[in-house]
Amino acid sequence: MSDAETASKPVTTGARQARRRIPTRYLVLALIFVITSVNYADRSSLSITGSSLQRELGFSTVQLGYVFSAFSWAYVLAQLPGGLLLDRFGARRIYALSLGLWTLVTAAVSLVGLITTPVLVALILVFALRLLLGVFESPAFPANARIATTWFPTAERGRATAVFNSAQYFATALFAPVMGWVTHEFGWRWVFVLLGVLGLALTVLWLRWMDSPAGHRRVTPAELDAIVSGGGLVDLEPGKSRGEHSRAPLGRRRIARIFGTRALWGVYLSQYAVNALTYFFITWFPVYLVKGRGLSLLQVGFVAALPALCGFLGGLAGGFFSDTLLRRGRSLTLARKLPSILGMALATSIALCTFTDSSALIVAIMTLAFFGKGLGSLGWAITTDIAPPEATSFVSSTMNAFGNIAGIVTPIVIGYTVQATGSFAVALWFVAAHGLLAVLALAVMGPIQRIRFDER
Q1: Would you tell me which of 16, 136, 282, 443 could form a disulfide with 102, CB atoms 3.0–4.6 Å apart?
Q2: Total domain count, the chain
C-alpha cells in the first residue's frame, strides 16, 4: 500500500463517521424536550396530587380552582420581562436560571403543612409557591421557540416546535401514572421531592453542555452552513453573532409594527383557545375522573395517560404533516393552517362526553379530542415563522402571555360551574367551545410571513 493510500484511509473512515454522526441540533431538541416534559410535570403535579392535597390541607373546590389558576396569573404577567431578558442575555443563561429556580419552588410545595397549619395559611403558601412557579417558568417556552429559530432551518421548524410542544402530552403520559402511584404509596409530598431532584439534575446538564450553534463545540461547519442556508437565525445569542442581523433595541415604531400584524393576533387568539383545553387537562381532568367518574387516584394516573399519549402523537403528526406540505411546495400559510384547523375542529368532540355515562367511552372521546388538540397545536411554529429576528423572544413571550390567560380563566370558571351545578357538563361545553374559537381565529388570520422592520 502506498503512502498516499495509507494517508487517505483514516480520512475516509472519519468521513463515514461524520456522515453517521447525529446532528447536534437533534440532540439540542432532545434536551429541550426532556426539560419541557419535566416543566409540564411540575405545573401539572397539582392536578394529580390535588385530591389528596385538598383533603389533607382542607381546601374547598373553589379554593382549589384558585390554586390551580395561581400559576397562570404570574406566568402571564412575567412573559414580557422574561422575553426581554431572553433577547438581552440569551437562552443559555436565562433558561438555566429559570430551570433552577422553578425546581426549587416545586420542591418547596412538599413542605407545606408538615406542621399543623390553618387552612388559610396553607392556602396562601401553596398559592404563593404556584405564583413563583409561574414567574420562574415564564421564560421556558419562549426560550424553546428561540432555540428552534436559532438551531433549525425553516423546513424543519414545524417538526422541531411540534416535538418540544408535544412534551406537554408526553409529560402526562409518563409522569401521571408515576405521580399517581407515588401519591398512592408514599403521599403527595414525595411527588414534589421527586420533581425537584429531576430538575436540579437537568440544570447541571444544561449548563455543562448547551451553547449556541456558532459556539457549540460539537457543531460541524457543514451543519452550521445547513442551518444558516435553510433560514436558521444562528446569530441570535449574545456574543455569537455572525453579523447578519441588526441587534438594535425595540422602540415604539417596532412594537407598533409587531402588534399591527394580523397574523400575530390570529395566533394569539388561537393559542388562548388551545391552552383552554390544555389547562382543563392539567388541572381539572384528573379531579373530574375522581369526583365525576368515581375512579381511584391510582386508576386516574393510568387513565389520564391515554389522552396524553394521543395528544403527544397528534402533536408530532401536526408538525411532520406541516413540514411535509412545505417540502412539497405548498405555501407556508397552508402548511401551518391546515393541520391546525383540522386538529382544533376535532378537539371540539370533547363535548360529546356529556352524552354518555360510560367511563370507557368518555376516555375514548377524550383521547380523540386530545389527539386533535395535539394535531392543531402549531402556534409555536407559526410564531417562529412570524417573529422578526430582532424580537424573537419578545414576540414569543407576548404570544405565550395571551395564550396563558386561559390558564387563569379556565380553572376558575370550571371551579365555579362545578360547584354551582354539581357536575362537569357545563365545564365540558365551555372547553369544547374553545376549539371552535381556535378554528375561527386561524381561518381569518391572513398570510403567515416574517415581520420585517423598515430601517429607513
Answers
A1: 136
A2: 1
